[in-house]
C-alpha cells in the first residue's frame, strides 16, 4: 500500500540542544533503516521549510501508524497522510 506523507517539524526552541541533537540523529538513523528495508521509498525536503514529503510502501495502515508513531521526532511533528492508488491516466 502506497502513501504520501507530509511531515512538518516544529521542535520547541527551548529544547535542550543536546536532546535536540540526539533526537535528530536517531531520526536520521531510523529513516535510513526504513529506506534500506524498502518501506520508506522516497523523501524530499519542501524548499524553505523544516518539512518533508515522503512515499511509504507498507503492508497496512497499522504498519504505517507504527512507523510514524515511532519517529523520534513524532512528538514535534504535524503529519498528513494521503493513501495513493493508480491514476487512470497513468501509462
Ligand atoms: O528532516 C525531516 O524532514 C524530519 C525527519 C524525517 C526524516 C528525517 O531524517 O528527519
Describe the structure.
Homodecamer. The protein is an alpha+beta fold. The chain has one domain: Dimeric alpha+beta barrel (Alpha-Beta Plaits, 2-Layer Sandwich). The chain has two helices and four strands, in the order βαββαβ. The chain has a four-stranded antiparallel β-sheet. The model has no long low-confidence stretch (mean pLDDT 98). The protein binds [(2S)-5-oxo-2,5-dihydrofuran-2-yl]acetic acid (MUC). The site of [(2S)-5-oxo-2,5-dihydrofuran-2-yl]acetic acid (MUC) has 7 residues, from strand 1 and helix 1.
Instruction: Please bin the fraction of helical residues.
Output: 25-40%
In total, how many beta strands?
4
In total, the number of domains comes to: 1
Distance between the termini: 19 Å
Q: What is the count of helical runs?
A: 2
Low-confidence stretches: none
CATH architecture: 2-Layer Sandwich
Give the overall form. globular
**Heterogens:** [(2S)-5-oxo-2,5-dihydrofuran-2-yl]acetic acid
Which strand order do you get reading across the main beta sheet? 2-3-1-4
The proportion of residues in beta strands is 25-35%
Structure keywords:
EC 5.3.3.4, four-stranded antiparallel sheet, 91 residues, 4 strands, 32% strand, MLI_dom, Alpha-Beta Plaits, binds [(2S)-5-oxo-2,5-dihydrofuran-2-yl]acetic acid, Muconolactone_d_Isoase, aromatic hydrocarbons catabolism
Fold topology:
Blueprint: E1 2-9, H1 17-37, E2 40-45, E3 51-57, H2 61-69, E4 77-84
Antiparallel strand pairs: 1-3, 1-4, 2-3
Amino acid at each position: 500500500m502506497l502513501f504520501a506523507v507530509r511531515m512538518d517539524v516544529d521542535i520547541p526552541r527551548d529544547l535542550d540542544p543536546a536532546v535536540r541533537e540526539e533526537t535528530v540523529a536517531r531520526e536520521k538513523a531510523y529513516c535510513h533503516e526504513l529506506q534500506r528495508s524498502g518501506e520508506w521509498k522516497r523523501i524530499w525536503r519542501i524548499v524553505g521549510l523544516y518539512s518533508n514529503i515522503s512515499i511509504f510502501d507498507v503492508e497496512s495502515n497499522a504498519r504505517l501508524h507504527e512507523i510514524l508513531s515511532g519517529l523520534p521526532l513524532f512528538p514535534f511533528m504535524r503529519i498528513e497522510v494521503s493513501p495513493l492508488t493508480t491514476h487512470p491516466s497513468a501509462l
